[in-house]
């Protein structure tokens, strides 16, 4: 792996950490901004089970569209409050494009945030049911190595991150987020109704970009 030519829609100086899938990227017209925020503490991560809407029945971070007049971090904070009832000192760690065949002709540009602390009391909302999961000792880009540490199992008895019930590409970038590595990426999916299949992906970490 090394400095690589980036997929269309990405810019900067990044080192490839994971890629795969078919030979060509999907075309898209424009990008729309979304956010996704995670609370990560010691050996655990906070996820939400999506009860309705886009991505229903998947576990994910808390987030949604960036509304007009908002910055991405403001939108991330608002969505975290709306969907989980908490506030947190969010820090930006990644950006990836999500493009779908059979979906809109624009790309979701998803800005990823994390925080280690939060204020307030977690609540279940109409949209999300929160749940803590044990963070694994992961090898970046190698999902099979997701082994939960003995400490995490013994102390908190949490389930491991449910990658099989998340967006298929999450297993390639969540390990980067857990280990505080700034990243960028692109994921192209095929969609048929509410079923999404990962067709092609690329993730890289920071080479020489200011964050
Ligand atoms: N591929 C992939 N991986 C990880 N996360 C996501 C995707 N695709 C996605 O859309 N997402 C994330 C990005 C956002 O956090 C949500 C989608 O936002 P949505 O819930 O539709 O936006 P809201 O503004 O909350 O929607 P409404 O409440 O207005 O319906 O999924």
From TrEMBL:
Q: Does the UniProt entry include the keyword Nucleus? A: yes
Describe, as the record does, how this protein assembles with itself and its partners: Monomer.
Q: Where in the cell is it found?
A: Nucleus
* Any one GO cellular component localisation term in the record: cytoplasm
In which family does this protein belong, per the annotation? Belongs to the Nudix hydrolase family.
Claim: Lipid biosynthesis is one of the keywords in the record: no
User: Which organism is this protein's natural source?
Assistant: Bondarzewia mesenterica
**Protein name stated in the entry:** Oxidized purine nucleoside triphosphate hydrolase
The cofactors named for this UniProt entry are:
Mg(2+)
Alphabetically ordered keywords of this record: Hydrolase, Magnesium, Metal-binding, Nucleus
Task: For this entry, list what GO says about its biological process.
Answer: DNA protection
Its UniProt entry gives the catalysed reaction(s) as:
8-oxo-dATP + H2O = 8-oxo-dAMP + diphosphate + H(+); O(6)-methyl-dGTP + H2O = O(6)-methyl-dGMP + diphosphate + H(+); 2-oxo-ATP + H2O = 2-oxo-AMP + diphosphate + H(+); N(6)-methyl-dATP + H2O = N(6)-methyl-dAMP + diphosphate + H(+)
Function, please?
Oxidized purine nucleoside triphosphate hydrolase which is a prominent sanitizer of the oxidized nucleotide pool. Catalyzes the hydrolysis of 2-oxo-dATP (2-hydroxy-dATP) into 2-oxo-dAMP. Also has a significant hydrolase activity toward 2-oxo-ATP, 8-oxo-dGTP and 8-oxo-dATP. Through the hydrolysis of oxidized purine nucleoside triphosphates, prevents their incorporation into DNA and the subsequent transversions A:T to C:G and G:C to T:A. Also catalyzes the hydrolysis of methylated purine nucleoside triphosphate preventing their integration into DNA.
């Amino acid at each position: 792996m090394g400095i690589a030519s980036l997929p269309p829609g990405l810019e900067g100086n990044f080192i490839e950490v994971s890629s795969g899938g078919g030979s060509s990227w999907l075309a898209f017209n424009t990008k729309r901004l979304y956010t996704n925020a995670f609370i990560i503490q010691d050996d655990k991560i906070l996820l939400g089970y999506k009860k309705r809407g886009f991505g229903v029945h998947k576990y994910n971070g808390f987030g949604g569209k960036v509304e007009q007049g908002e910055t991405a971090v403001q939108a991330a904070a608002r969505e975290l409050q709306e969907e989980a009832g908490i506030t947190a000192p969010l820090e930006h760690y990644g950006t990836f494009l999500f493009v779908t065949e059979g979906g809109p002709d624009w790309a979701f540009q998803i800005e990823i945030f994390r925080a280690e602390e939060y204020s307030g009391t977690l609540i279940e909302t109409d949209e999300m049911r929160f749940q803590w999961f044990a963070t694994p000792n992961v090898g970046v880009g190698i999902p099979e190595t997701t082994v939960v540490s003995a400490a995490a199992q013994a102390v908190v008895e949490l389930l491991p991150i449910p990658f099989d019930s998340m967006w298929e590409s999450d297993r390639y970038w969540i390990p980067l987020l857990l280990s505080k590595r700034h990243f960028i990426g692109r994921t192209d999916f095929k969609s048929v109704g509410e079923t999404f299949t990962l067709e092609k992906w690329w993730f890289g970490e920071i080479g020489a970009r200011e964050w």
